[in-house]
Amino acid sequence: MPGRRLAGRAAERAVLADLLDGIRSGAGRVLVLRGEPGVGKSALLRHAAEHAAPAKVLRATGAEPETGLAFAALHQLLRPVAGLIDALPGPQRDAVRGALGLAAPPAAQDRFLVAAGVLSLLAEAGRPYGLLCVIDDFHWVDRASADALLFAARRLDTDGVGLLIATRDTPDTRYALRDLPKQQLAGLDVADAAAALAGWAAVEPSPRVAALIAEATGGNPLALQEIAELLTAGQLTGHEPLPDPLPLGEGVTAGYGGRLAALPAGTRRVLLVTALDGRGDPRVVLAAAARLGAAEHALEPAPEQALEPAEAAGLVVAGPAAITFRHPLIRSAVHAAASPADRRAAHEALAAVLGAAGDADRRAGHLAAVAIGPDEEIAADLAAAADRARARGGYADAADALTRAAQLTPDPAARARRLTDAAVAAWLGGRPGQAHSALAAAGETAEDPGLLAELAQLRGRFALNSGDAAEALRIFLAAADQAPDRLELLADAAEAAAYVGDNDATVRIGRRAEALSEPQPPGSTDAFVRDVLAGSGALQGGDPERGVPLLRRALAAVPDDAGEAATLLWAAAAASLLGEGDAAAAYGARAGEVARVSGMAGTLPVVLENAATAERMNSRFALSAALSTEGLALAREAGISNSAAAHLANLAVCAAVRGQEAACQTYARQALAIAIPHRLGLRAGVASYALGVLDLGLGRFAQAHERLTALAGTGPGAGSPVVVWGSVADRVEAAVAAGDEAAARTAVAFLERWSAHAASARSRALLARCRALVAEDDTAVSLLYEALGHLAADSGAAYDQARTALLLGERLRRARRVGEARGHLRQAMEAFQRLAAEPWERRARGELRAAGQSADSPAPDALAALTPQELRIARLVAQGVSNREVAAQLFLSPRTVEYHLYKVYPKLGISSRAELTRLLQ
Questions:
Q1: Residue 620 C-alpha from the chain's centroid
Q2: SS3 of 762, please?
Q3: Is the alpha carbon torsion for 173, 174, 180, 184 positive or negative?
Q4: How far apart are the first and last CA of the chain?
Q5: What is the rounded CA–CA span in Å between residue 596 and residue 612?
Q6: According to the model, what pLDDT value does residue 139 have?
Q7: Quick one: what percent of the chain has pLDDT higher than 90?
Q8: Are 284 and 354 in contact (CB under 8 A)?
Q9: How far apart are CA 221 and CA 257, in angstroms?
Q10: Coil, helix or strand for 33?
Q11: Residue 667 and residue 658: Cα distance in Å, rounded?
C-alpha cells in the first residue's frame, strides 16, 4: 500500500496498539498479518514501526532471489544490533557470528543453537524499552532465517520483544506459521475504500462509482490506488462508463506492464537487475546494470540516471542503502515483462559483479539460474555454497543448493552423492518431505554399493524418526544383508526392533552381531555396541548364561565420565534389560545432561525421551514432565513425530500418577494416534500403561486390571517387552485388587524370571513387594519390610517407597496392628503429597483415618508450585550453572532466565543461589 497514509483499518490499528503496549511493558508479542498482495500488509507494518517508540525497531524484507541464501533475512534484521552479539552465551555467540558470516562457524553448527542465539540477541536488543521486529514478505524469507525467527517467536514470553510478520497466504507459510497468532487482512469495507479512492484520485469519485470499484476490487488498497491512477476523471465521477472489466488481479500487473513499457530501455534494464538481485544493494545493482548496458547500449545514460524515470513514476525508492520496489507486485511485473534472454543476461551480469566482490554463494545462485543443461562447474560452485550454508547451520538452504547442484551434475554417481547430501541437509533442516524426495531421486541414480547402503540407512532413519518403525526395521535388516560387516546397520536395526517391540527381531540381530569378528581394540565403541546387541539378543532369546555376561561386560566398559550421549543410551538399554531400572534411569539422566552441555540440539528431542523417562523412574515427575514438554516442542519443530509420541506417552504417565485424568487421556490419545499407525509398540505400550496407572490410582481396579493385563498380550507394533516388565508391579497390584489371584501369581512369576540376574537394590525391592501382594499376611508384612529396607538408601525411589509403605500400612491395619500401621501410612501420605501424586495421597489419607489418626495435610512441596520452565532452570542453577550457560542449554535468552529466577525465589521462600542449591540437593 503506497505512501505513508493508512486508510481505514481501525480494528487492525487497535490490535497493533495492543501489541506495542505489551512490548513496551516487557511482554513478548507475536502477530502475523496475512493477506493477498496489495491488501495493505506493508502499510500496517509501517504504521506499527512509526508508533513503536520508545521501543527500538528492526526491519527485514524477504526477497525471492535470496530464498536460498541461508540467513540472508536474518543478516538484514540483525545488522543494526550486531554489536551486541558478544554479550551472548559462548555457544550462542559463536553460532550467531558464524550464521551471519561475521566469523568462521563452529565445526558442528546446529540450527537450534543459532535460533537460541537469535532469541538471546533480540532480548539483549530489547533493553530497556522493548524491541519491535518487522518482517515483511515472509513468504520470501530464506528458510534458515525463517526457522530461527519462528523458534524465537514461540519463546518470546518476557523479553519485551515483538515480532510482526507480514506474508502472503500460501500453503507453505500457512503451515510454517500455523501456531502463531494471526490477523487475516481482508479488503477495505465500502466506506473506507471510498475514502481511500478519493484520497488517491485526481477528482472526487461519485458514491456509486466508489461502491462499484470497491466491490470489484474487494477493497484491495493497491488495486484501488492503481485504478484511481488509471481511470479518467469522467469515469471516476460517473460521467463516462467504467471499463469492463476493470484492471483487477492480473490486470493490476498488466497495468504495471504498461507503465514499465513506457520507461526507457535503460531504466527497464536497471529495474530488471534490481528485481533479480533481490537485496537491492545499490553497489551491486548499479555495477551489474552498467556492465549490462556497456555490453549492449553504450550510449544510454548511466544506471544512476536511468533510475530517475522509475522513481518519478513511483515504482521504486532509491536510497544510499537500498533500491526498493514500492510493492512486491512491481517486482513481479518487472520480471514477467522481461524476455528470457534479458533475464539470463541480467543474471550473468550479477554473477560477474558478485564474483568480483567475492560473494561466491550469490554468484553461484545467479549462474545456476542461467544454466541450460548440465554444467559441472556451476554444480560444484553450488555444492560449495551448500557446504558453507551447512557450516552456518543453514541446512534447509543447503538442501536447496544441493538439489539444484544435482540437477546440473552430468555424472550420475556425483549426482547421486549430491542428492544424498541434500536429503540429509533437508532432514536436519526440518524438511522431511523434501528429504524423502531427494532420497528417492538419489536411489534412482546410485549404483555404488557403499552409497546404496548409506541410502538404505537414511531411509531407515527417516522412517524410524517420523514414519513406520516396522518398515524401518525391514529396511535396516535388508541393508545389513547387503553389507553384513557394518555393525552400525545392526545397531540401527536393534533400535528399530526396540521401538516396534519385536523381540524375535532383537534375538536375530543379537546373533548376527555376535557372529561378527570382535572389534578391535577391546573396549572400543564398536566392541561396546556389539556386546550390548549380542547380550540383548541372547537374554531375550532365553539364554541368560550367554547374555548376562555380555551385558555386564558392556556396562563395565562405560567410563564414569562418559561424554557420548549415544553410549549412555545404549548403557541405559542394557541396564533395563538386566532388570535394573535405577541404573537405567541414571544412564538416561546423564545422557540428557551430556547432550545439553555438548550442544547436541539436533538430537536433543530423542535424548530427552530417555532423560524424561529416567527422571520419572527416579520419582521426579514434575521434572520429567518439564523435560517431555521441552522435548515435545523440539520434536514438533523438527518434524520428528515418533519422538513426539514418546514425549506424549511419558506426559500421560506423569499425569496419571498425579491423578490428572483429562490431561492423561489427552496425552495418551495423541500418543496412540501416532504410535499405532507407525507401529511404535514401545510408545503405544507406555501410553496404554498410563491409562492403566490412572485407573489403578483412581480405584477403578477392574478397568486397571483389564488394561494392564492386555499389555502383556500385545504383539510387535502395539506393545513392548520393556513395557511388560516395567508395568509388572502395577499389574500385580491391579490383579490382586480385582480379585484375580491367578493373574497376579503369573505376573509375579514373570518378574522373578526377568529380574533373576538383576543386582540392584531397587529391583530386589520390586520383587519383594510383588511377592508380598500374593502372600499371606505374616509373610507379606515381612516381604514389605524387606522391600523398604532395600529402598532405604535410594534417593530416587521416593514413589516406590511410598507405594510400598502404603501397602505395608494397609496389611498391618487389616492384621489389627494399627499402631504399627500409622507411621507407615503417614509416611506414604506425606511422600505422595510431596510428589503431587493426588490419588495415592487420598488413598493413604483414607487408610490413616481408618487407623484412627488425624490426616491433616502436610506443608505443600514448594517445587510443585514451579512451572516446568521454572523447574528446569532451577535444577540447572542448583548444579552451579551460570545464567548464561542455562540460557545456552535451554535455548533461552539470559534475560528470560533472569526473569524466571526472579519468580522462582519467592515461590520457594529463598533469596539466593546457595539456598536454591541446598533445597534441591
A1: 24
A2: helix
A3: positive
A4: 60
A5: 13
A6: 92
A7: 47
A8: yes
A9: 19
A10: strand
A11: 14
Identify residue 273 by its one-letter amino acid code: V
The predicted structure's pLDDT at residue 681: 95
Residue with cell 524418526: 465
User: For 638-660, what is each residue's pLDDT tens digit?
Assistant: 778 999 999 999 999 999 999 99
**Cell numbers standing for residue 104:** 568462521
Cell reading at 612: 524424561
> Phi, psi (5° rounding) for residue 491?
-65, -45
| Identity of the amino acid at 534 | A
Say how far apart CA 224 and CA 228 lie, in whole Å.
6
| pLDDT for position 600 | 43
Give the Cα separation of 890 and 465 in Å (integer).
22
Encoded amino acid at 356, one letter = A
Query: Crossing angle for the helix pair 111-125 and 143-153, nearest 10 degrees?
Result: 60
Q: Which residue in 879, 883, 905 sits closest to 894, CA to CA?
A: 883
Three-state SS at 32: strand
User: How high does pLDDT run on average in the chain?
Assistant: 87
C-alpha cell at 688: 496404554
CB 158 within 8 A of CB 191: no
Please give the Cα distance from 354 to 342 (Å, whole number): 18
Q: CA–CA separation, 387 vs 109, rounded Å?
A: 12
Pairing of strands 161-167, 131-136: parallel
Q: How many CB atoms lie within 10 A of CB 15?
A: 16
Alpha-carbon span 181 to 728, nearest angstrom? 45
206 phi, psi to nearest 5 deg? -70, 155
β-pairing, 316-318 with 323-325? antiparallel
Helix (H, G, I), strand (E, B) or coil at 521: coil
Q: What is the pLDDT of residue 116?
A: 87
What is the model's pLDDT at position 566? 83
Q: How far apart are CA 826 and CA 805, in angstroms?
A: 9
- What is the structure's pLDDT at 146? 92
Cβ of 340: how many Cβ atoms within 10 Å? 8
- Helix %, strand %, coil % for the chain, to 5? 70, 5, 25
* The pLDDT of residue 824: 94
Burial (CB count within 10 angstroms: exposed 0-12, middle 13-18, buried 19+), residue 452: middle
Closest CA to 828 of 806, 845, 807, 843: 806
Cell of 233: 476523471
Phi and psi of 57, rounded to 5°?
-130, 130
CA distances from 506 to 20, 484, 538, 573, 598 (A): 58, 16, 9, 12, 31
pLDDT under 70: residue ranges of the chain: 1-5, 106-110, 239-241, 244-256, 294-301, 327-329, 520, 595-603, 855-863, 891, 921
- Whole-model pTM: value is 0.77
Q: Helix 190-200 to helix 221-230 angle, to the nearest 10 degrees?
A: 40
Residues 346, 333: Cα–Cα separation, whole Å: 16
